[in-house]
């Protein structure tokens, strides 16, 4: 028989053994979110493919043709879709994590379980969406005749990890803040609308000229630029940009974990 000791003094420690004990709960939450997400929808999981595809189409018309943004030798549709693939994973997961505690408030008030399970389980839904959206990306690569480099394929995993660290850290902080201040639900969509325009999703980082150093402050810049260079051959991989993105992602992740652990003892009272 397993015994769980609830100690409010353990603010920064991650008990992986406790997570293993509650692994079935993580699976249950993730499966519940998957079913609820596409329940009573006509298209079902096709929405995971349609969202980035339609966004790519709109961006191609307005930014690729009307605004005339230069994507070099890469056709603009696949250029922007590469950015959207990772951006949609980032923004969707960030939104899901930030609202996860409010969505599970009845459970938080009634029973004990590692609170981190709720926000982390919500990311699985968006990872499934990411995998489905890669089907369109693969089709675009075949259509335009692109063959990913071996290095680019290897770097997909590190880029996914950096994306996960970034949205998890920022999301955990927002989820904890959202318990006390519900302004997050209104501010976050506005924040994400602005953030996509300061992330190289619809244009290359070279567009800023001597101000390219600004992209080093955004962890998604290194991810998107690395994937374009590795999978589409837009140029040499900027290792310093990727390394900076990894460092910022790690800092965000641990900052989010620390803040979440420091405030989780008050969730049941405030929520």
From TrEMBL:
Membrane association type: Multi-pass membrane protein
MF GO annotations: ABC-type transporter activity
Gene Ontology biological process terms in this record: lipopolysaccharide transport
Domain ABC transmembrane type-2: 43-263
Location within or outside the cell: Cell inner membrane; Cell membrane
UniProt KW Flavoprotein keyword: no
Pfam families for this protein: ABC2_membrane
Parts of the chain that traverse the membrane: 42-66, 78-103, 124-144, 150-174, 186-203, 236-260
InterPro entries referenced in this protein's UniProt entry, alphabetically: ABC2_TM, ABC2_TM_bact-type, ABC_2_transport
Main location: membrane
Keywords: Cell inner membrane, Cell membrane, Membrane, Transmembrane, Transmembrane helix, Transport
UniProt GO cellular component terms: ATP-binding cassette (ABC) transporter complex
UniProt entry tagged with the keyword Transmembrane: yes
Family label: Belongs to the ABC-2 integral membrane protein family.
Protein known as: Transport permease protein
């Amino acid at each position: 028989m397993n015994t769980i000791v609830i100690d409010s003094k353990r603010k920064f420690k991650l008990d992986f053994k406790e997570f293993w004990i509650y692994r079935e709960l993580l699976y249950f939450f993730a499966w519940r979110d998957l079913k609820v997400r596409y329940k009573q929808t006509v298209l079902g999981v096709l929405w995971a493919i349609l969202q980035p595809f339609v966004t790519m189409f709109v961006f191609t018309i307005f930014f690729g043709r009307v605004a005339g943004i230069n994507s070099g030798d890469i056709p603009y549709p696949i250029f922007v879709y590469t950015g959207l693939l990772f951006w949609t994973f980032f923004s969707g997961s960030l939104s899901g994590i930030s609202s996860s505690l409010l969505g599970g408030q009845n459970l938080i008030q009634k029973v004990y379980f590692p609170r981190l399970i709720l926000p982390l389980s919500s990311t699985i839904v968006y990872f499934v969406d990411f995998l489905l959206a890669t089907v369109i990306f693969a089709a675009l690569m075949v259509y335009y005749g692109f063959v990913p480099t071996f290095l680019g394929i290897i770097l997909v995993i590190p880029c996914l990890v950096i994306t996960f660290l970034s949205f998890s850290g920022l999301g955990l902080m927002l989820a904890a803040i959202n318990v006390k201040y519900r302004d997050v639900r209104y501010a976050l969509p506005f924040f994400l609308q602005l953030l996509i325009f300061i992330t190289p999703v619809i244009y290359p980082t070279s567009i800023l000229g001597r101000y390219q150093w600004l992209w080093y402050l955004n962890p998604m810049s290194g991810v998107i630029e690395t994937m374009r260079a590795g999978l589409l051959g837009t140029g040499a991989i900027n290792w310093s940009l990727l390394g900076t993105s990894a460092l910022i992602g790690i800092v965000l992740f641990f900052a989010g974990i620390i803040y979440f652990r420091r405030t989780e003892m008050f969730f049941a009272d405030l929520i």
